[in-house]
Amino acid sequence: MMLQGKVAIVTGAAQGIGRAIAEALARDGADVAVVDLDVARAQETAQAVSSQGRRALVIKANVAEWADVAAMADRVLAELGRIDILVNNAGITRDGLLLRMKEEDWNAVLDVNLKGTFHCTKAVLPAMTKQRSGALVNIASVVGVMGNAGQANYAASKAAVIGLTKTVAREYASRGITVNAVAPGFIGTAMTDKLSGEVRAALLTQIPLGRLGTPDDVAAAVRFLVSPAAAYITGHVLHVNGGMIMV
Ligand code: NAP
């Protein structure tokens, strides 16, 4: 119960990786604010958190909208009393080769993946600064490091999330706040269910461990980075990719 008494916010926690993270943090003792656009599915995550004996708060918010995010942070403070952990997990893809990529697809991905991370970070830092402690984890991607044909918008957003992570880590280290990123490889979720069998088979040949990752593989890395065991780690990018890239 290394997170007993702590309050965590997990964005995009209605399903997939975000749900696994919310459940893992609750198992370690944290109360969890489950933030997502999809309230019905977020309630299922909240139930899983409650079944661990932790408090769960479902908040509908679009991370791309500052007003939603500011109201979300206010509600967490009002109803759960503090904010110790933020996991910026909400993310989307709108794939296409660059010349065919529409400006709206570029904007949508940057707005959620990058601006959403900026908004949520900005919303929690005042409370963390006041208490002089906090742990932020941003979910990046292997694609932000190696690039991927057909994902210019997504790769740019995730590379930018890594730059943002390192900068906020430097700005807030003196306040006792750590900021790290987890860069998953290809993980079995709704996001990767869209891949064709052919693309999936080609991918597997590039993964030394020979399988897609699971949401629990990613949650385990987040769980470590927000734990007291990682107190001296900040500005780090932890790769969870089955050996797909080794950096
Ligand atoms: P997912 O199954 O699609 O889940 C993402 C969740 O985020 C959904 O519940 C979605 O709600 C929510 N969301 C989307 N836009 C949002 C917004 N503007 N505000 C609030 N919530 C929003 O995705 P996942 O595979 O678990 O991915 C989670 C994170 O890991 C993402 O940042 C993704 O880029 C990253 N990642 C995933 C993989 C992978 O292979 N799956 C690899 C590397 C990195 P709706 O369903 O209502 O849109």
Describe the overall structure.
The chain has 247 residues and is of the alpha/beta class. It has one domain (7-240): NAD(P)-binding Rossmann-like Domain (Rossmann fold, 3-Layer(aba) Sandwich). The chain is 47% helix and 15% strand. It has 9 helices and 7 strands; from the N terminus they run E-H-E-H-E-H-E-H-E-H-H-E-H-H-H-E. It has helices spanning 16-27, 39-50, 66-80, 103-131, 143-146, 152-172, 190-193, 197-204, 215-225; strands at residues 7-11, 31-36, 56-60, 85-88, 134-139, 177-184, 237-240. It has a 7-stranded parallel sheet, with helices on both faces. Strand 2 (31-36), helix 2 (39-50) and strand 3 (56-60) form a beta-alpha-beta unit. Helix 4 runs parallel beside helix 6. The longest helix is centred in the middle third of the chain and has 29 residues, at 103-131. The radius of gyration is 17 Å and the shape is globular. The mean pLDDT is 98. NADP nicotinamide-adenine-dinucleotide phosphate (NAP) is lined by residues 11-12, 14-18, 36-38, 62-64, 89-92, 112, 116, 139, 141, 184, 186-187, 189-192. Residues 11-12, 14-18, 36-38, 62-64, 89-92, 112, 116, 139, 141, 184, 186-187, 189-192 line the site of NADP nicotinamide-adenine-dinucleotide phosphate (NAP).
Helix-strand blueprint:
Layout: E1 7-11, H1 16-27, E2 31-36, H2 39-50, E3 56-60, H3 66-80, E4 85-88, H4 103-131, E5 134-139, H5 143-146, H6 152-172, E6 177-184, H7 190-193, H8 197-204, H9 215-225, E7 237-240
Helix pairs in contact: 1-2, 1-9, 3-4, 4-6
The structure holds NADP nicotinamide-adenine-dinucleotide phosphate.
